[in-house]
Design goal:
Oligomer: heterodimer
Order of helices and strands of chain A: HEHHEHHEHEHHEEHHH
Strand order of the largest sheet of chain B: 3-4-2-1-5-6
Number of domains of chain A: 2
CATH superfamily of the largest domain in chain A: Decaprenyl diphosphate synthase-like
Distance between the termini of chain A: 18 Å
CATH class of the largest domain in chain A: Alpha Beta
Strand content of chain A: 5-15%
Structural class of chain B: alpha/beta
Largest sheet of chain A: 6 strands, parallel
CATH architecture of the largest domain in chain A: 3-Layer(aba) Sandwich
CATH topology of the largest domain in chain A: Undecaprenyl pyrophosphate synthetase
Radius of gyration of chain B: 23 Å
Helix content of chain A: 55-70%
Largest interface: A-B, 76 and 79 residues
Order of helices and strands of chain B: HHEHEHHHEEHHEEHHHH
Strand content of chain B: 5-15%
Distance between the termini of chain B: 50 Å
Shape of chain A: globular
Number of strands of chain A: 6
Chain lengths: ~375, ~350
């Protein structure tokens, strides 16, 4: 599988993995895969080669995560800010993405066998149409899989994600599905692109930079942050173990802090509900005092109706999102064929310039006869 | 077999904790001692220079420290090439020392930092706002020149009414809690949804700039450029999630936790911030110094390099040198902003 490298850990790695697994393990790890360009400079190769090596390293890291029983990984592949890069580099990255998603579609059987679910988080409308369609096809094809989850942040920034979540809630209010008083931290979390994933336990950034660069700012508020100086294409199994050890050392404090936060969240929700109920009773009661029993009953009833309203809204939101991907992944008559022909042409041109490729066919499913055996 | 692995895991973690304790003890008893000698020598020299050389008066230690510190603050302000506009002091420790926090705030003022935020995830400083303010005023009197003191400080307290800005204010200090983080985003979202409910706007009007303007409130305080984290927990613990998208963090590295972590309580000495942060800024490919496990990792993976130790063990007894080094590190950072 090109997205997850085949293979097992060696004896020493397996031994250390078993030792690590005796302690608390992160269930969801996020990576900021930084350092591809610096790696390319260091190795005196083209930038594009650096990015390709970076993808290969991702495949290897996903294999290690599976070996360590980490079943959810989120990666920061392309930020909205990265559109500021040179057109050549942006085009190169888009082309790399297209090639990888095309290959992913070729490997659907393998993905089904391993139960890999691919999700792409971001404002996909900013991407070229043909890439959007490929992404949508990949997401739809793997939607039902549930053994491991790979979330790829593409055309993503956390602020856009948060603003989009607010927009979705406002849309819910417009549609009459929600009241503005239903807005809460829990509902916000459910409206983010990452709503189907738990918060990351561990966030790793490579290349020595010590900032978050607009990545999962909401979701990582209580995550263990590990900044490592190694460049992403040079990442090793031991770097990953180092980060997990760091997580394990922080685990008790993080648990405690998260519990404190949850308690505070629950208190805030209760206060909000009480305030809404007080207002309702005031309007209904016409100024008459209400006994505490009636107030308590009204509170429970209100909370139940709020939860039901929120559940229906979230269901509708999910259907809206699924419909977007279903629509994008459907055939588009001539546009689709033209796009595929264009991709092949570009892929053939790129093959000579990109020595990192294995020489396997990059052609799409319909054009496999074009493959040459340019093996390394 | 599972029991064996668990036993080895416990031994491994015990070793890591032991390593941390040893390094911390070394910092407290060896490096601090040698640092103190250096400081005394420098103080003596600076005092002489400040008061005129030679001085026949016998100057008390406290006075000498204050004078030397004031002289130092003046020169350091000029020496820093790039200053963060807004520094966040993130305290992730259970024990809170108001004097040490006040020192940090006053040092920020002295070197010319315009905005300082103080945060802890339990909201302790927010609840004891007035105590912190008093401590800051006290340290201001101790450490700063009279002329600097007059113009220095605006303290923003959420518990009191909105203050009028001080006209010649140089530094704005905010005391924050988790309510200023996710909860403030939720409140802004509620406000926007309410305006949609009342047909004052539509959902399509909602954008990043609109949300950003709501979250900035009226003071127009910029996002933190630098966060100095004090304590052993490697997390932001809810600190201003919206505002920290490009913030540089002074935070544990993985290697740090193996080789030279911090003590959660008691007197955690500070290794010189200056050398740690200068190292950190150069240290993209610097191999770290001792540590059983670090060397173990190096053997197992020769190609891997590890960040050198740059820690802010605790705000308790934090030294001015530590603080200054963090600023020097910040000056060396390069923000690519996506490019």
């Amino acid at each position: 599988m090109s997205w997850i490298r085949e293979g097992e850990l060696n004896l020493l790695e397996r031994l250390f993995a078993n030792i690590l697994k005796a302690g608390p393990m992160p269930k969801h790890v996020a990576f900021i895969m930084d350092g591809n360009r610096r790696y390319a400079r260091k190795r005196h190769v083209e930038r594009q080669e650096g990015h390709t090596q970076g993808f290969d390293k991702l495949a290897e890291t996903l294999r290690w995560c599976l070996n360590l029983d980490i079943h959810e990984v989120t990666v920061y592949a392309f930020s909205i800010e990265n559109f500021k890069r040179s057109q050549e580099e942006v085009d190169g990255l888009m082309q790399l993405a297209k090639e990888k998603f095309l290959r992913l579609l070729d490997e659907q059987e393998n993905l089904r066998k391993h139960g890999v679910c691919i999700r792409v988080l971001g404002d996909l409308t900013l991407l070229p149409d043909d890439l959007q369609r490929l992404i949508a096809k990949s997401v739809v094809a793997t939607r039902a899989h549930n053994k491991c989850f790979l979330n790829v942040c593409f055309a993503y920034t956390s602020r856009h994600e948060i603003a989009n979540a607010v927009k979705e809630m406002a849309w819910g209010v417009e549609q009459g599905l929600l009241h503005s008083s239903d807005v809460s931290e829990a509902l916000m979390s459910q409206c983010l692109y990452s709503s189907r994933s738990p918060n990351p336990d561990l966030l790793i950034r490579t290349s020595g930079e010590v900032r978050l660069s607009d990545f999962l700012l909401w979701q990582t508020s209580h995550s263990c942050l590990v900044f490592q100086s190694v460049l992403w294409p040079e990442y090793s199994f031991w770097n990953l173990c180092e980060a997990i050890l760091q997580y394990q050392l922080n685990h008790p404090s993080l648990q405690k802090a998260w519990e404190l936060h949850r308690e505070s969240q629950a208190m805030q929700q209760l206060e909000a509900d009480r305030s809404c109920v007080a207002e309702l009773l005031h309007h209904r009661g016409n100024g008459k005092p209400v006994d505490s029993q009636a107030r308590q009953t009204a509170l429970l009833r209100y909370a139940a109706s709020r939860e039901e309203r929120v559940r229906r809204f979230l269901c509708t939101l999910q259907q809206k999102r699924d419909a977007f991907f279903d629509h994008m992944s459907g055939p588009t008559l001539d546009g689709d064929k033209a796009a595929k022909a264009k991709e092949e042409k570009t892929a053939k041109g790129k093959k000579g310039a990109n020595p990192a490729e294995n020489g396997e066919a990059k052609a799409d499913q319909a054009q496999k006869v074009e493959a040459t055996a340019d093996a390394k | 077999m599972a029991l064996v692995y668990e036993f080895v895991w416990r031994v491994l973690h015990a070793l890591l904790q032991l390593q941390r304790t040893i390094i911390t003890w070394l910092r407290v008893h060896v490096w601090k001692w040698s640092g103190r000698l250096w400081k005394r020598a420098t103080a003596a020299l600076l005092v002489s220079l400040a008061l005129g050389f030679p001085s026949h008066k016998k100057i008390g230690t406290q006075t000498a420290k204050r004078v030397s510190r004031r002289v130092r603050l003046r020169t350091d302000e000029k020496a820093l090439e790039k200053l963060p506009l807004h520094v966040g002091l993130l305290i992730v420790e259970d024990d809170h020392q108001y004097t040490d926090i006040a020192n940090l705030v006053v040092w920020c003022m002295a070197v010319g930092i315009s905005y300082v935020s103080v945060y802890d995830n339990a909201g302790v400083f927010r609840r004891n706002n007035s105590r912190l303010m008093e401590e800051i005023m006290k340290q201001q009197r101790e450490l700063l020149d009279p002329e600097k003191r007059r113009t220095s400080l605006e303290l923003i307290s959420h518990s009191s009414e909105q203050q009028e800005p001080v006209l010649s204010c140089q530094t704005v200090v905010k005391v924050l809690s988790p309510d200023d983080g996710k909860l403030s985003i939720v409140r802004a979202a509620q406000q926007l949804c309410k305006s949609v409910e009342q047909k004052e706007r539509t959902s399509t009007d909602i954008s990043v700039p609109l949300l950003d303007s709501l979250l900035r409130e009226s003071k127009d305080i910029p996002d933190p450029d630098l966060v100095m984290k004090f304590g052993p927990v490697d997390s932001t613990l809810g600190f201003l999630p919206w505002h920290i998208r490009l913030t540089e963090f002074m935070i544990h590295s993985a290697v740090l936790s193996l080789t030279g972590g911090q003590e959660a309580g008691g007197k955690a000495c500070s290794r010189s911030f200056r050398s740690a942060l200068e190292q950190h800024s150069r240290s993209l490919l610097t191999v770290n110094s001792p540590g059983i496990l670090v060397n173990g990792f190096q053997c197992l993976n020769a190609g891997s390099v590890l960040v050198s130790s740059s820690s802010l063990p605790s705000h308790k007894d934090v030294s001015y040198e530590d603080f200054l080094s963090a600023l020097r590190h910040y000056a060396a950072c390069e923000q690519r902003l996506g490019k």
